[in-house]
Amino acid sequence: MEPLTLTDTIQSEEDKKLQEEVKSSGSIPNHIAIIMDGNGRWAKDKGNIRLFGHKAGVESVRDITESSAQIGVKHLTLYAFSTENWNRPSAEVNGLMKLLVNSLKNEAERLHKNNIKLTSIGQIDRLPESCQNQLQDVIEMTKDNDRLELCLALSYSGRWDITEAVKKMSQDVAKGKISPDDISDDLISSYLSTADIPDPDLIIRTSGEYRISNFLLWQLAYSELYITKTYWPDFRRNELYQAINSYQKRDRRYGNVKNGYTKKLSAAVINKIIS
Ligand code: IPE
Ligand code: IPE
Ligand code: MG
Question: How far apart are the first and last CA of the chain?
Answer without folding.
Answer: 64
